[in-house]
Design goal:
By secondary structure, the protein is an all-alpha fold. The protein folds into two domains: 1-99, no CATH class; 105-242, no CATH class. Helix content is 69%, strand content 0%. It contains 14 helices and no strands. Helix 10 packs antiparallel against helix 12.
Length: 242
Amino acid sequence: MIVADTRRRLTRDDAQLVLQLIAAGSHEEQRRGEAMLRDGGMDELLDDPRLLPALLERRQGAHASLPLLAYVMVRQALCSTGETDRGLADYVTSVLMHFGLGGRARRVALYDDEVYDTLAALLRDVDVSDPTRAFLVRAHLGNYALWLSGVFPDYIESRKHRHGGPDLGYYEDMGKRGYELAAEHRLASRYGMRELYAAVAERFPQLRLALNRVSDRFLFPHVHSPDKLLRQVADGARWRTA
């Protein structure tokens, strides 16, 4: 089960690197950052707008851990959409990192034998008799829809236009449904996931948009296509009127 644990995985070395990048050689900024870290932990430092450019452009940024870089990218993308909940940024980053591992996106657990290639196949299994598996399938339906629509929106749009495949709205609906079903399952309360799943379901379109921005800027920055332009224009109009 994927949980919102990215920030807990950050190390003392990550904290020191963040301090160095933000301070940029300024003793005053170094002291200020150390006081913030001591009094309130890393969250405010991770939200500093200077951090992401420094991670990407300065030589020291090459030493960043994957959890640190991924969290800062996702967090800033979410904030750009108006979503400031750190728990959601933590969870979305966890999904991004877990599903980046070979084969994990198509399995409900790391070592599960069954491979799911479609959201429809997952939906068929949301009410299997094994309660643990039913819970994992429901959560995975949401996670898989978020992963596909967030990281590969242009592939989805291309299939829609060329082969009549489902559009991004379908993925949003299926993802929202998966998280709603997971939140309703009794195991969600046992594992402390009910409120998180409900929040992800409610804000799925916004989370998808944030992951699109991560994908466009950092994962596929050199992809330029009519499908991508149309999708960005449609999303821009949607959020301006929301």
